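batch job 7 of whatever, protein = Sugar-binding protein
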Amino acid sequence: MANTSTSIEPTTTTRISTKKDHQIREIKKATIVPKLDGNMDDPIWKEVKWYGLDQRWLGEEYTVDDFFGRYKMAWTPEAIYILVEIKDDKIYDQYKDPLTLWWDDDCVEIFIDADNSGGNHQFTNNAFAYHVALDGNVVDLGKDEKPLLYNNHITTKRVTKGDVTVWEFEMIVYDDSYEEGKVNDPVILSKDQKLGFAIAYNDNDGSKERENFIGSVFIPGEEKNLGWINADVFGTIVLKE
């Protein structure tokens, strides 16, 4: 997320995929739904592998003492589950209003594209870039170009012990038919379904602005802060049993 603006993509009824699949990862189905308690002891978390949060999208070089991150994933027909472990020497939350400069506080950012089509989503619901704050508030930009709370899309539990924080997320998936203020049916997830996905961490150790933005997907070129605008840069997850 950044505080700049680009043109708005026109709304279309038929979306042509612009994305080339990359970082393709198979995600295992959970037989027992993970309990959101931040304890990492659910059966599914013992079965699936860790992936790294290790791509520097913004900021200067950092040391492992300053930041280390990794995550796991699972799914059920109703939701995607994400376990994140962050080692951060300072947790910082300067803005109590969840809709004020939300990207400059420590937060996890989850990117999801229900049909894996890629393309512009800055002010559309073609994809979502959910910023999950330390207090659990979930923010993204709406079609009116203003920040909105999407707390009914993601539920989270966060537990911090020393400099290690564990987050567990339950994310209900919505596609580009989602309309704010209306009744929306979530996507029912199924075997072999492909979704665009990335995850990142905004790290701020006490500055006015975030100091690092660290993601899960390699983005070529000099400009890497693209996920909040363009879903082409998301990786691809494939749901497996």
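notes: The chain is about 0% helix and 35% strand.
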